[in-house]
Automatic annotation (TrEMBL), chain A:
It is found in: Cell membrane. Pfam families: BPD_transp_2. Keywords: Cell membrane, Membrane, Transmembrane, Transmembrane helix. One of its GO terms (molecular function) is branched-chain amino acid transmembrane transporter activity. It comes from Phaeovulum veldkampii DSM 11550. It comes from the Bacteria. One of its GO terms (cellular component) is plasma membrane. The keyword Cytoplasm does not apply. InterPro entries: ABC_transp_permease, ABC_transptr_urea_perm_UrtC, LivM-like. This is Urea ABC transporter permease subunit UrtC. PANTHER family: HIGH-AFFINITY BRANCHED-CHAIN AMINO ACID TRANSPORT SYSTEM PERMEASE, SLR1201 PROTEIN. The chain crosses the membrane at residues 12-38, 50-68, 74-91, 143-163, 170-188, 220-240, 267-287, 293-312, 319-336, 356-373. The keyword NAD does not apply. It is a multi-pass membrane protein.
TrEMBL record, chain B:
Pfam families: ABC_tran, BCA_ABC_TP_C. Keywords: ATP-binding, Nucleotide-binding, Transport. The lineage of its organism: Bacteria, Pseudomonadati, Pseudomonadota, Alphaproteobacteria, Rhodobacterales. SMART domains: AAA (SM00382). InterPro entries: AAA+_ATPase, ABC_AA/LPS_Transport, ABC_transporter-like_ATP-bd, ABC_transptr_urea_ATP-bd_UrtD, BCA_ABC_TP_C, P-loop_NTPase. PROSITE patterns: ABC_TRANSPORTER_2. GO terms for cellular component: plasma membrane. This is Urea ABC transporter ATP-binding protein UrtD. It comes from Phaeovulum veldkampii DSM 11550. Transmembrane segments: none annotated.
Length: 410, 247
């Protein structure tokens, strides 16, 4: 990142400073390092929220900037989680198996250890062999590489097929959703090699760090998530700052015209799709150790729709909007659904937020799309005195993802 | 002088309707050509074929010294090979500034990784400013293209076309929605451009075509009806019947 692009994007510095302050504050208020005002479980919630901010950022790149409403990014998120989860589960089970076998006179052979691990992990689905996809599960570097490679390759292959045949708009969204659903259904099977609907569990226990308590582990992961979000933000801001950003916004608004300028539109879409899939996978790999468990239900269609709602409510096409949307909606959502929100007594009816929250969220999504398409980010434009250009209701291009009149800034 | 673009025997059928019927066309490397014809004659479809938007059912489109066949190429490849196009309706990127629009069109490597690393240098800014003043938008560089008037958008699109430095320019009704002064400016620009490259102009306005003072090709029902100077073709009885006689 050059100094020039930083001065043109003051939001990057503001964002990074805010993130750093927030990270420090949470650290000093946590149980591990300070006052203990923030419980370990809430530190985990905050850490997970930062990961959700990162996937929202990726969603803004692909949807807000490139105009592709992907409903498939939770598949990449979960795959990232599965890849790191395999190592976490394998390595931890290995410790347990080795301990158990140490009691028997002879030292165990590597084969005995492998068999022991396999039956420990796959006992729940009635298996005792380690599936082939677990071949590298014993190696942290290998699984870390797979966190990037598996979702990246899936995005590359899927994107290549979809973009090459020029599927766009709502059909593309449906296609990405179908991919996610197919993957979820496959993983639900017991013989998929990833423990079916049991998923992977115990991921909060980090092998080799048994001596470290959850209080510190939660802070470590919080830091890692904050670092990933900061880097991701800087990267995304750099990507959209120059001519590349111009080209993908142009693709969003009128992709046919971009072709006649000589840009290979499909290659650009594929690049952004794969890049965002990789960012998303890294977010997933940080999220699930904090959540402790991952199963195929994480890829449910609703998750991808939530993602689109965060970005829309935050305001698309402005990066920080996506982050604000993710923080705002996911924290509010966990407050309402966690039973902490007091019931609202209307006299004739008591509103229980656990039941009503989804409806409120859906309604606010509709209202925001209709009346405030610039979302929460639009408030910043009000402060900065930016108005939407008057285009008499016309969108900014014929593309399906084209920015609408009220979303634009003058 | 060999031709820069050589179109031979192309035909296109839309749902049984023959929009282009065994059309052949040729233009030299530094030539101005006007294409006229009644509504629905196939002028825009002809441009669609040359630029790769529409695939013909048969025929050949050869381009450049090495006579590469454009039919096997994508729109983007054809554009990179040196064919630029201005659309009938002005199409610019409305959410971006005039400068960004021009910067995107500047001739440079179009690959995503090259573009990611690309940062404008002083000479690029200078070139953009030069192009903007050439099309009368020097004072509008930071403005969003969406705020420009119809005529200004036409100009911006012409500016983008110039920035691409194409060897062949296809211009679809450039003067539509322009004032008289703007039309004159456009004429001068097109005549000037045709000194160094091939320019094909589609236009309905006869006065405009007359001012271009170039060879004219008359299209009718997807085929060439007549070719020659404007006076020559307007004396042609077939042309008078299908085109002038009607209006
Ligand atoms: N994609 C398409 N599908 C079906 N028919 C088409 C398509 N494109 C063009 N046509 C038809 O082909 C014929 C030629 O159209 P074209 O747009 O090339 O005419 P034109 O000479 O540019 O006319 P104008 O002067 O009105 O711009 C018209 O009858 C049109 O309806
Ligand atoms: Mg036309």
């Amino acid at each position: 990142m050059t100094p020039g692009s930083l001065s043109r994007n003051p939001s990057v510095l503001i964002f990074l400073a805010t993130l750093a302050l927030f990270t420090l504050a949470v650290t000093f208020l946590s149980e591990a390092a300070g006052a203990g005002l923030i419980s370990t479980s809430f530190v985990k919630t905050l850490g997970k929220t930062l990961c959700l901010c990162l996937i929202a950022l990726a969603m803004d790149l692909i949807w807000g900037f490139a105009g592709i409403l992907s409903l498939g990014h939770f598949a990449f998120f979960a795959l990232g989680g599965y890849m790191i989860g395999m190592w976490l589960m394998y390595a931890r089970t290995e410790v347990i198996v080795v301990e158990a076998l140490a009691g028997a006179g002879l030292p165990p052979t590597p084969q005995e250890i492998r068999d022991g691990i396999a039956s420990q992990i796959f006992g729940v689905v009635g298996g005792s062999d380690l599936p082939a996809i677990w071949a590298f599960a014993g190696s942290l570097p290998a699984q870390l590489a797979l966190v990037v490679l598996v979702p990246g390759t899936l995005a590359l292959v899927f994107g290549w097929l979809a973009f090459r045949s020029r599927v766009t708009g709502v059909y593309l969204s449906i296609l990405t959703q179908a991919m996610t659903l197919a993957l979820a259904l496959y993983l639900f099977q017991n013989d998929s090699g990833l423990r079916g609907n049991n998923g992977l569990s115990g991921l909060q226990n980090i092998p080799g760090a048994e001596a470290v308590g959850q209080d510190w582990l939660s802070v470590w992961f919080f830091w890692a998530s904050a670092a990933a979000l900061g880097l991701g933000y800087a990267l995304a801001a750099w990507v959209v700052s120059g001519k590349f950003g111009s080209v993908i916004r142009a693709i969003r608004d009128d992709e046919a015209r971009v072709r006649f300028l000589g840009y290979p539109v499909e290659v650009y879409k594929l690049t952004v799709f794969t890049l965002t899939a990789v960012i998303t996978a890294i977010a997933g790999a940080l999220y699930y150790p904090q959540a402790g468990i991952i199963n195929p239900a994480e890829m449910a269609p609703i998750a991808s729709i939530y993602l689109a709602v965060w970005v829309a409510i935050g305001g698309r096409g402005r990066l920080y909007g996506a982050v604000i949307g993710a923080v705002f909606v996911s924290l509010l959502s966990s407050w309402f659904t966690g039973g902490r929100a007091p019931d609202l007594n209307l006299g004739f009816y008591t509103v229980k937020w656990v039941d009503w929250w989804q409806i409120v969220l859906g309604l606010s999504f509709v209202l925001v799309t209709l009346y405030a398409p610039r979302g929460i980010g639009g408030l910043f434009d009000l402060i900065a005195g930016l108005r939407a250009p008057d285009r008499r209701g016309a969108a900014l291009g014929p593309g399906d993802g084209a920015l609408r009149e009220q979303e634009a800034k003058e | 002088m060999s031709a820069l673009l050589e179109v031979s025997g192309i035909s296109v059928t839309f749902d049984g309707f023959r929009a282009i019927n065994n059309l052949s066309f040729e233009i030299g490397p530094a030539e101005l050509r006007a294409v006229i014809g009644p509504n629905g004659a196939g002028k825009t479809t002809f441009m669609d074929i040359v630029t790769g938007k529409t695939r013909p059912d048969s025929g050949k489109v050869l381009f450049g010294e090495r006579s590469v066949n454009l039919l096997g190429m994508t729109e983007a490849q054809i554009a990179r090979a040196g064919v630029g196009r201005k659309f009938q309706r002005p199409t610019v990127f409305e959410d971006q500034s005039v400068a960004e629009n021009l910067m995107m069109a500047l001739k440079a490597d179009r690959g995503p990784f090259a573009v990611l690393r690309w940062r404008p240098r002083p000479e690029h800014h200078a070139r953009v400013a030069e192009l903007a003043s050439e099309v009368g938008l020097a004072d509008h560089l930071p403005r969003k293209a969406g705020e420009l008037s119809h005529g200004q958008k036409q100009w911006l699109e012409i500016g983008m076309l110039l920035a691409q430095e194409p060897r062949l320019l296809l211009v679809d009704e450039p003067a539509a929605g322009m004032t008289l002064a703007e039309r004159e400016h456009t004429t001068r620009l097109l005549v000037d451009l045709a000194k160094t490259r091939a320019v094909v102009v589609v236009e309905h306005d006869m006065d405009f075509v007359r001012r271009l003072a170039c060879k004219v090709t008359v299209l009718h029902e997807g085929a060439v009806l007549a070719e020659g100077s404007l006076d020559h073709v307007t004396r042609n009885p077939a042309v008078i019947e299908v085109y002038l006689g009607r209006g």
